[in-house]
């Protein structure tokens, strides 16, 4: 299976550490990724696809960087730079572009809630009104994967990606007071029409 994110990981590592060190770390990350994929059990096909394409490449990168000669704080900052400056910034730009579509709020809220009702990536409850919708997530594949791979602290960054993705949009507002990744009993997403 081709893992699209690997190209982005490799590019980031070369940009950050230069070609020699970047490629060396990338090779280790790729080996770690396949090791993690192999030991991941009891997941649906959809969950495995999301894990392989989205979550596990970042977990593998984090684990490999922890084994390099960096402090834990430096590793966290490298991961933050990758996940916030690369991943989240791109997701935010994409969502901001979608806002140009007439009726964006209505379309986005309908699609978001439909996906959340039918996905097996989270367990959640929903409520909505004319100008808002709420999703309360009590189990999340991102949080579960970080726990299963012994890096719960990395889940903070997965949560932070949402804040950047939905923050500062013109037609839709976003708030959240707690997340599973930061130790909350749920992730309480609240979206509202601006």
Features:
single chain, 194 residues, alpha+beta, 4-stranded antiparallel sheet, globular
Biggest sheet descriptor: 4 strands, antiparallel
Shape: globular
List the strand order in the largest sheet: 1-2-4-3
State the share of residues found in helices, binned by percent: 55-70%
Strand content: 5-15%
| Spatial extent as radius of gyration | 17 Å
SSE string: HHHHEEHHEE
- Count of helical stretches: 6
What's the topology here?
Blueprint: H1 5-39, H2 45-66, H3 72-98, H4 104-118, E1 122-129, E2 132-140, H5 141-148, H6 155-166, E3 172-175, E4 187-193
Antiparallel strand pairs: 1-2, 2-4, 3-4
Structure, briefly:
The protein is built from 6 helices and 4 strands; from the N terminus they run ααααββααββ. It has helices at residues 5-39, 45-66, 72-98, 104-118, 141-148, 155-166, and strands at residues 122-129, 132-140, 172-175, 187-193.
Task: Explain the overall architecture.
- The chain contains 6 helices and 4 strands.
- It is an alpha+beta fold.
- Helix 2 packs across helix 3 (72-98).
- The longest helix has 35 residues, at 5-39.
- The chain starts with a helix and ends with a strand.
């Amino acid at each position: 299976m081709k893992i699209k994110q690997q190209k982005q990981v490799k590019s980031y590592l070369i940009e950050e550490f230069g070609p020699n060190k970047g490629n060396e770390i990338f090779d280790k990350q790729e080996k770690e990724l396949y090791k993690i994929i192999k030991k991941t059990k009891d997941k649906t096909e959809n969950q495995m696809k999301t894990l392989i394409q989205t979550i596990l490449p970042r977990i593998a990168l984090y684990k490999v960087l922890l084994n390099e000669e960096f402090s834990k704080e430096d590793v966290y900052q490298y991961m933050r730079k990758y996940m916030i400056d690369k991943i989240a910034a791109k997701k935010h730009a994409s969502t901001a572009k979608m806002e140009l579509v007439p009726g964006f709020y209505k379309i986005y809220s309908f699609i978001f809630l439909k996906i959340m009702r039918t996905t097996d990536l989270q367990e959640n409850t929903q409520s909505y009104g004319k100008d808002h919708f709420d999703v309360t997530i009590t189990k999340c594949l991102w949080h579960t994967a970080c726990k299963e791979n012994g890096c719960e602290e990395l889940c903070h960054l997965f949560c932070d990606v949402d804040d950047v993705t939905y923050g500062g949009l013109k037609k839709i507002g976003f708030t959240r007071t707690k997340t599973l990744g930061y130790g909350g009993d749920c992730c309480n997403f609240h979206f509202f029409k601006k």
